[in-house]
Design goal:
Length: 140
């Protein structure tokens, strides 16, 4: 089973930025733990701060992979283009947010991508990625 985690803008700074919201663990460190837990999954990771690169990656993997875990960061609330890219692919996408977007600023309450995703996990910290993996691996 092939699953990719795709993280959007500013998520390359996990472990160093706004620790009270995002924690103090780097994503790379957390990814190694996920790989150790989900040994049956061919798990890959991609991060970009550039909207077009995220769209290109969705197009690249969206017809061959078994699942995509997507955290669009700030693009979640602004990008019709990313929403359209998710709608155009066949691979199921689970939307993940580390913080509870509904408990934050008003503009973060709206996700333009949720309607194109299998579901959304928000507010459980990095554990949300593990929850998404659990869902995707149970679907086979």
């Amino acid at each position: 089973m092939k699953i990719i985690i795709i993280n959007g803008p500013n998520l390359n700074l996990l472990g160093t930025r706004e620790k009270s919201i995002y924690g103090d663990e780097s994503f790379e460190g957390y990814l190694e733990k996920l790989k150790g837990t989900f040994t049956e999954v061919d798990l890959s990771y991609y991060q970009s701060n550039v909207e077009g690169e995220l769209i290109n990656k969705l197009h690249e993997v969206g017809f061959d992979y078994d699942g995509i875990i997507f955290n669009g960061g700030g693009y979640t609330h602004t990008s019709v283009a990313i929403s359209d890219a998710i709608a155009a692919i066949k691979t199921p996408v689970v939307e993940v947010h580390i913080s509870n977007i509904h408990a934050r600023e008003e503009f973060r309450h709206l996700s333009l991508i949720t309607k194109e995703c299998a579901g959304m996990i928000t507010g459980f910290g990095l554990k949300g990625y593990e929850m998404a993996l659990g869902y995707l691996t149970s679907k086979t």
